[in-house]
Amino acid sequence: MKRILMIGTGGTIASEMTDSGLSPKLDTAQLLHYIPEVQKLCKVDCVQIMNLDSTNMTPNDWLTMVRCIRSHYDAYDGFVISHGTDTMAYTAAALSYLIQHSPKPIVLTGAQKPISSDVTDSKTNLSDAFTYACSPRASGVCIVFNGSVILGTRAKKVRTHSFSAFSSINFPELAVLQDGMVLQYIELPKSDEPKFYDRVHENIGLVKLIPGADAGMLDYAIARYDAVIVESFGVGGLPETSDSRFFSSIQRAKAMGKLIVMTTQVLSEGSDLNVYRVGHSLKSQGILEAFDMTTEAVFGKLAWILGCTRDPAEIQRLFYEPIAHDLLITGM
Question: What letter does residue 12 receive in the DSSP assignment?
Fold first, then answer.
């Protein structure tokens, strides 16, 4: 019988109603009480490392999860992390970079309704997470939710209330679960040993363009952050204003040694700065392009990379190196 460590971090799944709304209250042992059938599947140990609404999750909390998994890695066959849905995709992406090539599954799950609710997705999601963590074909970081297994670098929350909260962006689902059975579509290659990282860089900003946006917001972000992700329109580009302020901002960022990553607000198919004039000239300005990566993956990857190095050439190399299938299309 496999040994699985359940790691509690909070979220809706563990929440109870208070005078000011839902708030995480239950620990992992209490959650496990609602799915006693799992004890027939595997031996489960529980640890509670935090109890947060995932809106309050920070990159330092990712490192707490990494330390927990690393310290228990040899003793268990897999890990199930109960987590809030709002930032679960960010955590899944970040853990994909901070724990690379894990031959053991690291499964994140949560719910849209608390586990104590009369109508809830909590019990099914949690049970499915343990089922997948026990699968001999499972490895690496993934999200199990509403019967779908989604690669950690490809997950995005796309619904705020429905049980089908997450989608896999620009990559197929790894597997599906139904009636306690796993149908595996894609099996990730397994290595002998995982590679753990223990540093992240938090000083990263995000600018989302809107029609008529003032370049001042980009200037502010460049002054404030070491790296700025720009979510542009369509396949990507910057507005060509009469005074060329957006392009001047990019040039200043380059002179200051700041890192700019261009991505798209569109969920599917990714960016391609070569298509239109508004994007083509950016390629010579030393910016990075996200292509088919999600914003969550871009943020997690930058946090990991800048925690490892500040050398521009090495940053570029690592950014364009595919990790956990985060990047399929590049212009490199």
Answer: G
Among left, alpha and beta (phi > 0; psi -120 to 50; other), residue 135 is: beta
Mention every residue, 6+ apart, whose C-beta is less than 8 A from residue 58: 202
pLDDT confidence of residue 244: 80
Pairing of strands 3-10, 78-82: parallel
Among 9, 12, 91, 295, the active-site one is 12
Q: Please tell me what DSSP assigns to residue 296.
A: H
Please state, in angstroms and rounded to a whole number, the distance separating the CA atoms of residues 216 and 231: 15
The amino acid that residue 168 corresponds to is: S
Decide: pTM greater than 0.90.
Answer: yes
| 91 part of the active site | no
Q: What share of the chain is helix, strand, coil (3-state, %, to 5)?
A: 35, 25, 40
Write out the two tokens for 12: 């809706």
* 84 close to 11: Cβ distance less than 8 angstroms: yes
The predicted structure's pLDDT at residue 190:
84
Q: What is the pLDDT of residue 276?
A: 85
- The beta strand positions in 77-160, using DSSP E, are 78-82, 99-100, 105-109, 140-145, 148-151, 155-157
Say what the pLDDT of residue 18 is: 87
Per-block mean pLDDT, blocks of 10 residues, the chain (332 long): 97 90 91 95 97 96 98 98 98 98 98 95 97 97 98 98 97 95 93 94 97 94 97 94 84 93 96 89 88 98 98 96 90 53
Contact criterion met (CB below 8 Å) for 249 and 222: yes
Helix axes 88-98 and 59-72, enclosed angle (nearest 10): 50
292 contacts 330 by C-beta, under 8 angstroms: no
